[in-house]
Amino acid sequence: MAGKAAAPGTAVLLVTANVGSLFDDPENLQKNWLREFYQVVHTHKPHFMALHCQEFGGKNYEASMSHVDKFVKELLSSDAMKEYNRARVYLDENFKSQEHFTALGSFYFLHESLKNIYQFDFKAKKYKKVTGKEIYSDTLESTPMLEKEKFPQDYFPECKWSRKGFVRTRWCVADCAFDLVNIHLFHDASNLVAWETSPSVYSGIRHKALGYVLDRIIDQRFEKVSYFVFGDFNFRLDSKSVVETLCTKATMQTVRAADTNEVVKLIFRESDNDRKVMLQLEKKLFHYFNQEVFRDNNGTALLEFDKELSVFKDRLYELDISFPPSRRARRRLSPTTTSGLTSAWETTSPCSWRSASRPGQVNLTPMCTSVVSCSDVWEAMAATPEGPSRDLPVARGAGDVPSIEIRPPTAASTTRPSATR
């Protein structure tokens, strides 16, 4: 767990969550999620806090706008957040623009004890002191305090231009300048396609998009600073390698659609033991009979297949994973549901350490939501009394809160770029 805010310095808490399901059931899921979030704030007592949300507003933003307004109002006015007297909220609400809409929501909260906090104006190319609470929405493209881009259409698999992109802000806190990037990368559209090659075609698309973002935030337009990238990466375990390992001695049965002859299901059976089904694989279903493999020793046996971030090992750093995996899931509402965290689930991916959902059987997700940074951040943090520390995800349900607490170095160890005061 992250260290308490006892050591001198400024405690920074970075939180990321895919919150799409919260707006499907605001009376249950949203209330439970906010309760967990407030508990994180109470536990770590950060001075500066960033909350990056993906799928903000749910699948149908227009229908959820009233829930969005209520969610934002609750965050800004709740008793749990009363000590945060300055805030910046950036909501991409331009859902009618296919060219620009990303459904990203970025929240930044500053504790009343913090003095002289600055945010970078990308248009004026200078820092501005942060005062009061402000909300920006609709056309974020014209907001000078951030950079926002939706990935180009040719990046999108299956030619479906979905809501994927990134938002970047720059801050100067405790004499330390850094970028915070909210990101949402592409998911695996089909398990049947993902397992055909290693790495999968979807993995290649995610690598291309993440590389594009990293190149953008260190290009020559602005002075280079350290950065944190946290959001929904949609990283998956290497499906082909996992299936081959889990089903080494299995025989495979292929099921095709009668009208198109298209493969719709793969069934892996034990070669003996009455040919029991070991794994059933469909476009949106990954059902492995032995769920203990995902729980034993926090699922560390599968970490060797968590390869997607390794492509960027010279550019990005992530703290060690020490918590159990969860899996991406579809939530099925029913009249018997008593709580948003106890409703029925189906999984769409095998396993995930970065997932924003409950365990189930949908597809092979390692860490979807995660916090990564450039390596020089941690070199600087290592010199501080406590150093950085990684939290466990605190909520097992739609919209987990994977988070990280850091303590920026003091003014003696970091030079701040000149700021407008």
Automatic annotation (TrEMBL):
<feature type="region of interest" description="Disordered">
    <location>
        <begin position="384"/>
        <end position="421"/>
    </location>
</feature>
<keyword id="KW-0378">Hydrolase</keyword>
<dbReference type="GO" id="GO:0046856">
    <property type="term" value="P:phosphatidylinositol dephosphorylation"/>
</dbReference>
<feature type="region of interest" description="Disordered">
    <location>
        <begin position="330"/>
        <end position="358"/>
    </location>
</feature>
<feature type="compositionally biased region" description="Polar residues">
    <location>
        <begin position="340"/>
        <end position="358"/>
    </location>
</feature>
<dbReference type="GO" id="GO:0004445">
    <property type="term" value="F:inositol-polyphosphate 5-phosphatase activity"/>
</dbReference>
<feature type="compositionally biased region" description="Low complexity">
    <location>
        <begin position="407"/>
        <end position="421"/>
    </location>
</feature>
<comment type="similarity">
    <text>Belongs to the inositol 1,4,5-trisphosphate 5-phosphatase type I family.</text>
</comment>
<protein>
    <recommendedName>
        <fullName>inositol-polyphosphate 5-phosphatase</fullName>
        <ecNumber>3.1.3.56</ecNumber>
    </recommendedName>
</protein>
<feature type="domain" description="Inositol polyphosphate-related phosphatase">
    <location>
        <begin position="8"/>
        <end position="386"/>
    </location>
</feature>
<dbReference type="InterPro" id="IPR036691">
    <property type="entry name" value="Endo/exonu/phosph_ase_sf"/>
</dbReference>
<dbReference type="InterPro" id="IPR039737">
    <property type="entry name" value="INPP5A"/>
</dbReference>
<dbReference type="InterPro" id="IPR000300">
    <property type="entry name" value="IPPc"/>
</dbReference>
